[in-house]
Write a structure and sequence with these properties.
This protein is mostly beta strands. Helix content is 0%, strand content 52%. The strands form 5 sheets. The chain has a 4-stranded antiparallel sheet, with no helix packed on it. It holds the Pfam family WD40. This is DMXL2 protein. InterPro entries: DmX-like/RAVE_component, WD40/YVTN_repeat-like_dom_sf, WD40_repeat_dom_sf, WD40_rpt.
Length: 185
Amino acid sequence: LTGAQDGSVRMFEWTRPQQLVCFRQAGNARVTRMYFNSQGNKCGVADGEGFLSIWQVNQTTSNPKPYLSWQCHSKTTSDFAFITSSSLVATSGQSNDNRNVCLWDTLVSSGNSLIHAFTCHDHGATVLQYAPKHQLLISGGRKGYICIFDIRQRQALHTFQAHESAVKALALDTSEDYFVTGSAE
């Protein structure tokens, strides 16, 4: 799966030189993040205008429409994570009201899909990591802060400054004992 500054999103197969599917044409908002869900049957694309779009991967048409497209944040959606069997999605980004980390239910109508919004990260959340074993979300912000949320209780557990500049990367070890942060500096 490839995404570009011009907003295009294309899917390729290792053994074929041409694209299999073009999910989005050039001329859309820049792609900020893309993932497959754990089953590999859906892919999601976040963009610079605050949208998250999700497609079924096994499309037979060359230009399929997403089955879900929401404006999750008013300015940008910088990252997201599929939670559980991809019926829950967490997003990070920047919104005018500082609700910069959100939980969404993909099985209900778009008007009722926001389950919870965490008010955090002045100037926006840049990255997001889901820890399934502990049911935690870890987010990094533009000012170097890390926030850890319990998604079962829907509350913030910890907030601390890890860097002097924007957090650009988060990684979690497979046993979920440690996480690592990387910054713009």
